[in-house]
Design a protein that fits this description.
The chain is an alpha/beta fold and 572 residues long. The strands form four sheets. It has a six-stranded mixed β-sheet, sandwiched between helices. Strands 17-18-19-14-20-21 form a six-stranded mixed β-sheet, with helices on both faces. The protein is globular and about 70 Å long.
């Protein structure tokens, strides 16, 4: 029987506000992690998950934080009351942490090798010469291809999946007893997510490691966790083994989380929808090497073509680097491209400047990260009304009324329009971004991963909002997402991209239930089987079998039946 490794006992965390005022954000939290065990901490944004995790290593600023109650014991020694010298021995050596956003956590000025070497030099006293072979070994171990060539790379030269793998390598170089992983798969496509999950499973077994896994993705939690603690407003409202949480949740909030998975069908199409956007033979080239007389070019979008009807949603799916975002940047005329782009019967491929301006207001975009896309120096009213000043001739009072109207439309209180983006949650910022796009009354809205960084309950609210707006105004959407369940719920048509090409396209039922290409089947295989059952309105009962036994049974079944049936079958 495994022994207790970490025990969080009745922990409360408060931040100082002014001289005496305290704001308590975590209240009386308790949980245990045994050796070689994974505990998942789940809940909405702002529920206190990351604050709890950061408190374990005392990474919150001393001047701002106090701990009114409780203790944190690691191998029966208090971390909450330990001296800094003792904490430094634990941090990195005994307990390591993977932070949520690797692009922020990795130093943009240092190469991969330098950042990994710092860990080995600090915690294991290695020389640079000896460290290189160790670094290469661990980069290979976490699945970095051509690891030797990546040593001199800077973080911005790596893909999202590669950066996350570098963060994992950095965390495990010291062979920690406990790994804290804070949203390590957020914003990664499904194939990379699956690789990261498999990697964490293997490392846990190989290093006899325990894990505290923080995530709002319940599908990943189901695959990785042994126990689950559900947090709401700074408190743990339910704490049990994984089977109990997913099979028989007791608390209403846990039930709400489990029921907030994307579901339903796209909105009904108009009776006779005309074609709004037609793209034919779209190509995008980039210069890979500059030469004196001729540059070496590489085609990153190759002969892409599709149509979007009025009131229709088109989903674009594929792995990172498949060309999804590049395709829509070309449609928006933000990068150079060749081919034919026809919007509402008007060719816009060769339009520039003032000739293109009338179409800018009719085609709007909502980007993946609203925190980055909203100007922090402008308040909400200024952000939302910015497009009106360029495209519409309105008085100040008319612009203000338009802002009030659109904020109400997207579920925001107009009274908050003088606040700044930093004062809002992720879901509120995304609503602000949607309001900014919709105030110009566009006919086509391009949504680039609009819900990837949101928890499931907030994601469901945004998706419901987008559906209601689409039905009301007959909007057309181009919806880019790595979340296939979201795409099925939102989109009438789906195109699958790989290496800049369209591999397969068709209706959402055809793509999800009758895929033809092996690549599409591979992407769909990462979806939880319960999705396919829900999509076909069938009752699903979870099995009490272990994941390993269930996978064996599923494999046997897939050998006996066709693809469509294989996705829907699960032995009871």
């Amino acid at each position: 029987m495994s022994s207790l490794l970490l025990s969080v006992q009745d922990l409360s965390v408060a931040f100082k506000r002014g001289t005496h005022l305290l704001s308590q954000v975590v209240s009386n939290v308790s949980f245990d992690i045994n050796e070689q065990e994974t505990l998942a901490l789940v809940g909405e944004s702002g529920s206190g998950k990351s604050i709890t995790a950061l408190s374990i290593l005392r990474l919150l600023g001393k001047e701002q934080v106090v701990y009114p109650t409780g203790d944190i014991l690691f191998e029966e020694k208090s971390l909450l009351h330990a001296q800094d010298k003792e904490l430094r021995k634990v941090r990195g050596n005994e307990i390591s942490m993977i932070f949520q956003e690797p692009m922020v956590s990795l130093n943009p000025l240092h190469t991969v090798e330098k950042q990994l070497y710092e860990v080995l030099a600090l915690h294991r006293g290695m020389s640079r010469q000896n460290a290189r072979s160790e670094i290469l070994q661990y980069l290979d171990r976490v699945g970095i291809r051509e690891s030797k060539s990546k040593l001199s790379a800077y973080p911005h030269q790596l893909s999202g999946g590669e950066r996350q793998r570098v963060m994992i390598a950095m965390a495990i170089l010291t062979h920690p007893k406990l790994l804290i992983a804070d949203e390590p798969t957020t914003a990664l496509d499904v194939s990379v997510q699956a690789q990261i999950i498999q990697l964490l499973k293997e490392l846990k077994k190989e290093l006899n490691m325990s894990m505290l896994f923080i995530s709002h993705n319940l599908g990943i939690v189901k695959k990785l966790a042994d126990k689950v603690a559900v947090m709401q407003q700074g408190e743990i409202v339910e704490y049990n083994n994984k089977q109990r949480i997913f099979l028989r949740p007791q608390h209403t909030y846990t039930q709400t989380l489990l029921n907030s998975e994307p579901s339903g069908d796209p909105v009904s199409l108009p009776d006779t929808p005309g074609i709004l956007l037609n793209v034919n033979h779209l190509n995008v080239e980039v210069i890979t090497q500059k030469r004196l007389f001729s540059n070496k070019k590489k085609k990153i979008i190759d002969n892409v073509g599709f149509s979007v009807h009025q009131g229709e949603s088109l989903g674009i799916v594929g792995e990172s680097g498949s060309g999804k975002s590049t395709t829509v940047l070309a449609i928006l005329r933000l990068i150079n491209s060749q081919g034919e782009i026809v919007f509402d019967s008007h060719p816009i491929q060769n339009l520039t400047g003032k000739k293109l301006l009338p179409f800018r207001s009719r085609i709007q975009v909502v980007f993946q990260d609203p925190f980055s896309s909203l100007n922090p120096r402008l308040n909400v009213e200024q952000i939302i009304s910015e497009g009106l000043k360029t495209h519409k001739k309105l008085s100040k009072s008319e612009r203000e009324q338009a802002v009030v109207d659109i904020m109400q439309e997207v579920g925001l209180d107009p009274q908050i329009r003088y606040r700044y983006p930093t004062e809002f949650s992720g879901g509120q910022r995304q609503r602000i971004a949607i309001a900014r796009a919709l105030i110009l009354k566009p006919e086509l809205l391009i949504l680039d991963e609009p819900t990837s960084s949101l928890d499931h309950t907030m994601q469901q609210q945004i998706l419901n909002l987008l559906k209601s707006l689409q039905e009301k105004y007959q909007l057309s959407y181009i919806f880019i997402s790595h979340d296939l369940a979201v795409v099925y719920s939102m989109c009438h048509q789906v195109i699958v991209m790989k290496d800049g090409k369209v591999i397969e396209q068709g209706s959402h039922d055809k793509i999800f239930f009758e895929p033809e290409s092996e690549y599409t089947k591979t992407l769909l295989s990462f979806l939880d089987k319960s999705f396919f059952l829900k999509a076909k309105n069938k009752t699903f009962i979870y099995s009490d079998k272990t994941n390993e036994q269930q996978d064996k049974d599923d494999k046997k079944q897939k050998n006996k039946i066709n693809w469509g049936d294989a996705l829907l079958m699960r032995k009871e």
